[in-house]
Write a structure and sequence with these properties.
This protein is α/β, with parallel strands linked by helices and 213 residues long. Helix content is 27%, strand content 26%. A 6-stranded mixed beta sheet has the order 8-7-6-9-10-11. Strands 3-4-5 form a 3-stranded antiparallel beta sheet, with no helix packed on it. Strand 3 (37-43) and strand 4 (46-51) form a beta hairpin. Helix 2 crosses helix 3.
């Protein structure tokens, strides 16, 4: 098992494939041919591909969620993540000012793949109501115990326990490229967002895009 530098997620090293094969099929269209994918981004731990058939961007690794995330890694990198979280939150507030009247109300936010909760804590300090989703039971428990955050241990790829139209903003930082069922995730985000809500995606192709519902 290895741990990614960007998220701390442990991924299962697959048997090397031939030039025509992928370790993981495209989650968008099921393409399993390496030659029909473009290398989009590379770090030492994994390769990110863009499917030439459907345009989906995904990690060419099979993720084994049974092993979860490394709590030691998450705690060690927490100071760095806290700085990034502060910057991400500033960008979100700036975008909200652009599309609104300039004044930002206290909103309800869901962070998918929230880790130890640094980003949620940043929003909570400004009076926002926050909740998180985290696949790793140990990391989710840390966020609940150490930061008193509302964090559920489940996936955004299927219906969650949250009620429809529960959130003004749903954020996913470094998550979407890991998902095996991004369509399911998009459907659940649409269910959870209130009319006029925002879905904020940040992926390894280093830019963040915001989509209004």
């Amino acid at each position: 098992m290895i741990t990614t530098a960007t998220t701390g997620q442990r991924i299962q090293a697959a048997t090397p494939q031939g030039p025509m094969g992928l370790k993981r099929s495209c989650p968008g269209c099921g393409n399993s041919c390496r030659e029909r994918c473009r290398r989009w981004y590379v770090i030492p731990e994994f390769e990110v591909l863009r499917c030439r058939d459907c345009g989906a961007t995904f990690i060419d690794q099979v993720i084994d969620d049974n092993f979860g995330f490394s709590i030691e890694y998450e705690i060690k990198t927490d100071p760095t993540i806290a700085i990034k979280s502060a910057n991400d939150f500033k960008r979100i507030k700036s975008k909200l000012r652009e599309v609104g009247s300039g004044k930002i109300p206290h909103l309800r936010l869901l962070d998918v793949g929230c880790g130890t909760g640094a980003f949620l804590e940043e929003a909570q300090r400004e009076g926002w109501s926050v909740a998180g989703l985290e696949l790793s039971p140990k990391v989710a428990d840390y966020a609940r115990r150490q930061r008193s955050l509302e964090v559920e241990t489940c996936s955004i790829e299927s219906p969650t326990n949250f009620a429809p139209a529960s959130f003004d903003i749903v954020t996913m930082f470094g998550v979407i490229e890991h998902l095996g069922n991004p369509r399911g995730a998009a459907r659940e985000c649409a269910r959870l967002l209130r009319p006029g809500g925002f879905l904020v995606l940040q992926t390894v192709c280093p830019s963040a895009r915001t989509f209004k519902k």
